[in-house]
Amino acid sequence: KGKSKTVWVCSDCGYDDGQWWGICKQCNGVNTMKRFSEGVEHLTSGFEVLENVKRSWLPHQSVRAMPTKLTDVNKGINQSNWRIPLSGLFGAEVGRVLGGGLVPGCLVLIGGDPGVGKSTLLLQIAAIVAEGCDMGGPAPVLYVSGEESIEQIGNRADRMRIGTDELFLYASTDVEDILEKTQTLSLRALVIDSIQTVYLRGVTGSAGGLSQVKECTEVLLRFAKKTNIPVFLIGHVTKSGEIAGPRVLEHIVDVVLYMEGEKCSSHRLLRSVKNRFGSTDELGVFEMSQSGLQAVSNPSEMFLSEQQSDSEFLAGLAVTVIMDGSRAFLIEIQALCVAGSSVSRQVNGVQAGRAEMIISVLIKQAGLKLQENGVFLNVVSGVSLSETAGDLAVAAAICSSFLEFPLPVGIAFIGEIGLGGEIRTVPRMDKRINTVVKLGYKKCIIPKSAETSLSALDLGDTEIVACRNLKEMINIVF
Ligand code: TYD
Ligand code: MG
């Protein structure tokens, strides 16, 4: 009870493990695994982190503060359970993803690809927190940028028609300087854009490097807990899909949100990946407009309109849900069957052996005459499908192209296919189905054996269809 989790993290590559290894299992670095404790424990054991850092930034009232017992701290938190409400449609959507509002003193990390809209999102959040419609009037919020000048941020705010009086902008990359400046304002929240641009004097390495990112985040965590001011950090996601300073950051902070979106689409998803104060199943849906992000209150319409507009491409297109760590993604699988020509099979993003197996099962068990067909498979947007959970969607896409029958709009497929044509369940069914439901899909095809995992789920308007085998699926869908 109240025990912090200890992990060992490689200081070179960020690989983490539940136990210590002399040689890092990922990069083979020798003696690079360092002990790392997750959570509140840092507040009492993290002093050495600050050894060579000047303490001048600490708020005055806390200079005389004494270490507090973890149990006392938790008692306080549990009793009040107080959250800062976020007002308006946009605020409600963000608040829901945060688990029902903003918790005082929490450290929130928001990750995402460059250009996805993180700065835009945070500027809007900063504005509504500063306005404080549901919080008894305006209070100062500081938006610190190490990436843009205050004029650039000002311009953006102008375009988004943000004119909040209590929103302060500051361009700096020096954490001590930033925290010093916070003392002159009685802040309601602090935003740092981004964690990869800030640095601590006295810590080795350049900004954005593992040790800087880690130490800066720890100092900011201490600041948040001491002052009870919520702090938002923006973190860029690297090519490998992790927030730089790899997993380390995620262990330190209280809440991790990911912002996702396709380059060609205006929709943005805000997903909770870790939340010490709420569920991680929440998904926020937004649309990027001329004047910033707008909450999409009815996601199903959004997805339907998008698909209907390119309905001529729908034959041979099927949607499935894959997991990446704890994140669930929807991906589209395209199939093209060409009769007569060569019987070549080209696959892109699907394992060739797996594709061959699914095609064979379709021939043998479902009676599809694919023998004289060339079959092409492609996973849209270059993701590669490494999970068997996508089997059913691959099969559905092939059927759809072969039968020249476009799949109905708003349908998703989850399931593994066995050699007998049977549809098998896959791990994390609840999480996958939850994503489909949250995104407003009309129908989701799942394995019969997974039906039991549905009992605890709120299915909304989504119809769940459980199938035993491929024949059953084809009869129902086509
Ligand atoms: P930005 O928030 O700068 O992304 P990040 O901080 O994640 O790198 O947003 C980048 C994109 O958003 C940019 O291409 C322009 C677009 N955008 C809009 O479409 N509407 C807006 O109101 C704003 C502010 C940005
Ligand atoms: Mg930015």
UniProtKB/TrEMBL annotation:
<keyword id="KW-0479">Metal-binding</keyword>
<dbReference type="GO" id="GO:0140664">
    <property type="term" value="F:ATP-dependent DNA damage sensor activity"/>
</dbReference>
<keyword id="KW-0227">DNA damage</keyword>
<keyword id="KW-0067">ATP-binding</keyword>
<dbReference type="GO" id="GO:0016787">
    <property type="term" value="F:hydrolase activity"/>
</dbReference>
<protein>
    <submittedName>
        <fullName>DNA repair protein</fullName>
    </submittedName>
</protein>
<keyword id="KW-0346">Stress response</keyword>
<keyword id="KW-0547">Nucleotide-binding</keyword>
<dbReference type="GO" id="GO:0005524">
    <property type="term" value="F:ATP binding"/>
</dbReference>
<dbReference type="GO" id="GO:0003684">
    <property type="term" value="F:damaged DNA binding"/>
</dbReference>
<keyword id="KW-0238">DNA-binding</keyword>
<keyword id="KW-0863">Zinc-finger</keyword>
<keyword id="KW-0378">Hydrolase</keyword>
<keyword id="KW-0862">Zinc</keyword>
<feature type="domain" description="RecA family profile 1">
    <location>
        <begin position="83"/>
        <end position="237"/>
    </location>
</feature>
<dbReference type="GO" id="GO:0046872">
    <property type="term" value="F:metal ion binding"/>
</dbReference>
<keyword id="KW-0234">DNA repair</keyword>
<dbReference type="GO" id="GO:0000725">
    <property type="term" value="P:recombinational repair"/>
</dbReference>
